[in-house]
């Protein structure tokens, strides 16, 4: 048998080598990947996680802003953004269109719910124009359009109504919107926040003004996330673990504001703005015991939801803008004089004008009121009275007192961009004009802070608006703001005397604050009429900033309020204090009632009611009032009543004094135990010359009770504090010695 010759097959061998090599290369690659876990320099686990691990964001809510009682002022709420798909490429089935088919019909319906213009026809036209847009400025085709501010922040109710119209191509995207439910409400204080797009395409609500900006870090939350595994088609894999990082909502801020008081204030500010069309207005209410700001607003203002406002400044005028305070500054000049012992209310001076080198200071009525007492000068808001007082106080001492009251310095209130103002004191005339509030500048919040010292028995309290900051999840208080005493610029006795004298500006015959009398509470305060500086120097002609800085009740003030009205359009013969009083009076009255604060004359449980007794017999009314437990004081010779104090219908504590003014000479009553205010009321009504010595309550009088007052001889009335009343007066000076001391 013939053997077959072996033939080497090169083709088969080469194929074996080739495919064998490929196998070993593939095997080596697999082993390498298995060992290193990397391919092409990338971690395969990371690439798999990127492809199959999905992540979804959990949006954090911005912190809420509340008033002191927990009533909402600002919060995040669900809203909707309107989108219109205008490209026909979105529609795959003509029977079920997914783009705007009829732009005219769609615009007509949308115009009922969104406002791109206040004019109805123009609004519809602008919406139609937006829906008809097919190409962008760069020539690219437009797929969808939005409607700016008009199409954002839509409520659920509006979204539902538009959806019911079943308009093709109209879509809604849900979102969180910063919502201010009270509309125009302390807007310059609260500010506003807007959504801003981040680099990664997400949106964050960011504060742009006011507290929203200042406390943006505290209010802003941290978004959370959800991570989970999916298959190649993005379906959730069975039994896959979800990893959840919860969102941390922003902290909640509780303000010192009282929503009810703020509402009172906003309402009256709006009414006065409509009636008098002023250039601007500012108002603040504060608690003098703590420095808490209970209400704050200004005009013109804006709605933080829409950011719309006419002729408005985007700054908080109470904090960031300085003014010449006008005669409200006389309050602190008076306090300086009393505290230094240089105030003698019954000493006289020549009103009208006062010369400082080549400058002549004049009273607001130019000619003055003749030779009058310093008390009357203050009640009439005499500039020259302040000039004379400065000479007694001393320039350097007076400037030091202004520093003590915090003028020319920031109060430190927890709000941004606080201004300091400037106290002009380089030249003598500047120091004189500063005594009555001209030239030097302050902020309204500085006036409030300074007035806390007068209302709070000498203790000056720093104003603040943040009560506390709270973690909404745990309820833990992160920051708690406490009252801060800024010093004691004057003594408690000085503060009490200033309050008593401020109260007489409302009751005295020549008082400038008569428009601020309240029926149920005794108010103490000072009016201000400040000239408005011209940009190039000097002052505008017949253009004023009218203001009032007041407190109530006078014996234990619970509220301080500042109101200013700039350049109001007054009616013929109307005083500038009228529009100011139309804000101060109802707001102060309602706020005190809201706080259940009793007036000085209604502290007791037992009360008696008085009414307007004008035209009635004084003797008959006297018997009636005595039967009601009151103490009637007839001022004059008796007969028909021509005036009274207190005025109007109101409740009084039994035992309270009621003054009944009649014609004729008055008989001096027993003044023992009377307060300084009651003494001054009798003095004004009876037109009697009183010399008042001391402070507190009447301990003695130089003329016996029952004496008919028929000449102008001064009657010396000595007052003592309750503490002094317990001491034995072993070396009581004679009336002549008292007069000598007063003359020094």
From TrEMBL:
Pathway recorded for this protein: Cell wall biogenesis; peptidoglycan biosynthesis
Residues in PASTA domain copies: 604-664
Entry keywords, A to Z: Membrane
Subcellular location: Membrane
The enzyme's E.C. designation: 3.4.16.4
Catalysed conversion reaction: Preferential cleavage: (Ac)2-L-Lys-D-Ala-|-D-Ala. Also transpeptidation of peptidyl-alanyl moieties that are N-acyl substituents of D-alanine
One Pfam family per UniProt: PBP_dimer
Subcellular location, principal: membrane
Enzyme class: hydrolase
Family membership: Belongs to the transpeptidase family.
UniProt-listed PANTHER family: PENICILLIN-BINDING PROTEIN 2B (PTHR30627:SF26), PEPTIDOGLYCAN D,D-TRANSPEPTIDASE (PTHR30627)
Name recorded for this polypeptide: serine-type D-Ala-D-Ala carboxypeptidase
